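Hello, quick one for you while I still have it in my head. Could you read through the record and tell me how the tokens relate to the sequence? No rush at all, and the record is pasted right below.
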Amino acid sequence: MKRALAIFAKTPLPGRVKTRLSPPLSPGQAAELYRCMLLDIIERAAGLRADMVIFHEGSAAFFRKAAPDALLVHQSTGGLGERLEHAFQELSGRGYGTRVVIGTDSPDLPLAFIEEAFQKLEQGSDAVFGPAEDGGYYLVGVRDGHGALFQDIPWSSDSVLETSLRRAQASALAAALLPSWHDVDSWDDLLRPSLLEPSNDAPRTRAFIAALDLAASLAADAV
């Protein structure tokens, strides 16, 4: 069965990405962090047995250089649910049977989790979710139709996954879950020791965070 790994991404421009981190980061720093995370994800995902498709916001020029072997598709307009529906329909139209979508907020996401998502779909699950610690999900995949999975979801809330699982049940879709993982959305997220571990295979993100000298920042805040 033909596999597609879709990455939802934006052109890393100041004021357009990682805005929840600015402040304390400057808009330029937030954009650079996003760029590092995105490039780490692209480089790591290239090692998977799947075709990479980048659904992007903004100019395609950055992505042509960053991922020359990836298929580039503009994200559709509308809310996240509409954009996900469009992405899965686009991939289906291109002949992909197992389709998995990730974002850019988990640069150290184990590749084994993504591979497990494909395997669950190939073994009969209709949908698969990667639970995020904030109540959302870092990954979603479907095998055939997606029913009402993305309709009337309270996006950016702590009940995204819970509601999505109810939508799957209502659509008679067998949903599987992956191990939980974390996003990098807030200042506290940058303090995770795992982000500085060489074994996480996210060298650009690791170097950026190390250069921030968070220990010094925390000490200054405590004064």
